[in-house]
Amino acid sequence: MSSGSVQTLPLQLFLREDFPQLLQTLKQLGYQTLGPVLSQGAIQWKAITTPEDFPIDWKDQQEPGSYRLEPDPSPRYFNIVHGPESLKPLTFAPRETLLVLDHQNNTFSAKDIQPDTTPTAILGVRACDLAGLGIQDQIFLHGTYPDPYYQQRRENLFLIAVNCTRAHATCFCASMETGPKAQQGFDLSLTEADEDFLIEAGSVKGLKVLDQLTSSIASEERIKEDEERIGACAASQTRSLPKANLPAALYEAHDHPRWDHVAARCLSCTNCTMVCPTCFCHGVEETPSLDFQQSEHTRVWDSCFTPDHGYIHGKNFRPTTKDRYRMWLTHKLAAWIDQFGTSGCVGCGRCIAWCPVGIDLTEEVQALSQPPL
Ligand code: SF4
Ligand code: SF4
Known about the structure:
The protein has 373 residues and is α+β, with helices and mostly antiparallel strands. The chain has helices spanning 19-28, 88-91, 127-140, 148-155, 173-176, 204-211, 220-235, 248-252, 258-265, 271-275, 321-340, 350-353, 361-368; strands spanning 12-15, 32-39, 42-47, 58-63, 66-71, 95-104, 107-112, 120-125, 157-162, 188-192, 196-201, 216-217, 282-288, 294-301, 311-312, 315-316. The protein is globular, with a radius of gyration of 22 Å.
């Protein structure tokens, strides 16, 4: 986990030709390294061992209901903004056996299954994903019962952020004040240009790695150039989610006819909740062995869009897609504020891009904020 106060150091310039040093240093310090890797037509966090593992020469295009990778003659390692995965699957596993119950000699015993806690450095974390991780920390670490599985994985992460200089049509981090520049929660942050990077340490662990790299103090001119590129990225975002009228606008819209409109398009497919960096619903499954001598107790991601999610004591209290979409949006953008003191949305835009019918929550909030026609 990013921790420890860091003395303010001048921003450093780190040359592209020296980038392999970063991978080598992380390896020497015992980290496995994950980064953005082309996989199944998208980008996933996978092992990176050499600079060639990065998706150089590719870029992503994201629009409502659309995610495309296309060739791009750029030398940059981090030209692709993000894939469907946030940091969520790396700390809160999509499917995880927690316990194995054993029935032997008329007694039961329970063996807990420990998560893999290999120290892991992740290269290419975006500001919105750091914000999403901060929200998940609040849920899994800072409640009455911290989650030991999440905690062990979280403590072993080394996070290398990359500031965004390119936004998609689906991004709205600027209006959520979560990006495009990583402000906190990282161990190292990079701003990439064609020939080099600006690099900054955000933790004592990050400083230890930075100390091993060949870098020099960045010029004022170069720092200003990067600030302008990040500022232009923020200014290029066409979507926004004005905070001012939330949560009231959604509470007041409970009976708005717009819910019928969106429900007529929504497939209740759960994609939006699976890709969201902050959604945390889960269920548990018991899987007995054929001889009933053992049973695996497994935690699995769930979604408020599944029929079972609203089923309790013989009745489903959210039987329709309209009920489910209203529940999701109202919790995410309104009740979350009352529950956790912050929005449940960080403006990553994934739910817009990965919704098969291109439902856009910013458009829905705007419509729900207007009086019914
Ligand atoms: S609600 Fe959508 S835009 Fe907001 S954090 Fe979740 S996936 Fe990203
Ligand atoms: S809003 Fe889109 S992604 Fe979410 S459940 Fe409905 S159809 Fe699926």
